[in-house]
Amino acid sequence: WEERDEDIVYSLAEVKEKDTKEVLIEKAKGSVCAGYVNLYPPGIPLFLPGERITKEHIALIDRYLEKGMHVQGVNGHTIHVCK
């Protein structure tokens, strides 16, 4: 995976000014993440606030959740995104 400029939609400061909503992870593709999403432990960021959520992100989260791993920033099977 290679980060591209279009992957980062908003700066952290811009994200903090946005309204957010909680959506099912499966429906988050194309949305902009409103918070940090980390695999914990050890605390490895999977993606950052302001980053566009891709099908690869969703597949990664699903894989970790299926293995019983803790993904910070994911609440059950929902995630906060910018409106």
Q: Give the beta-strand count.
A: 6
Low-confidence stretches: none
What would the principal axes of the Cα set say about the shape? Answer: globular
Biggest sheet strand order reads 1-6-5
Percent of residues in helical segments? 10-25%
Count of alpha and pi helical runs:
2
Distance between the termini: 26 Å
- Secondary-structure content class: alpha+beta
Main beta sheet: strand number and arrangement? 3 strands, antiparallel
Element order, helices and strands?
HEEEHEEE
Taking Cα atoms only, what radius of gyration do you get, to the nearest Å? 12 Å
Indicate the proportion of strand residues.
25-35%
Mean pLDDT: 91
Word description of this protein:
The chain is of the alpha+beta class and 83 residues long. It has 2 helices and 6 strands; from the N terminus they run H-E-E-E-H-E-E-E. It has helices spanning 12-17, 55-66; strands at 20-24, 37-40, 44-47, 70-72, 74-75, 78-82. Strands 1-6-5 form a 3-stranded antiparallel sheet, with no helix packed on it. Strands 3-2-4 form a 3-stranded antiparallel sheet, covered by helices on one side. It is globular, with a radius of gyration of 12 Å. It starts with 11 loop residues before the first helix and ends with a strand.
Short note summarizing the structure:
By secondary structure, the chain is an alpha+beta fold.
Topology (elements, then pairings):
Elements: H1 12-17, E1 20-24, E2 37-40, E3 44-47, H2 55-66, E4 70-72, E5 74-75, E6 78-82
Antiparallel strand pairs: 1-6, 2-3, 2-4, 5-6
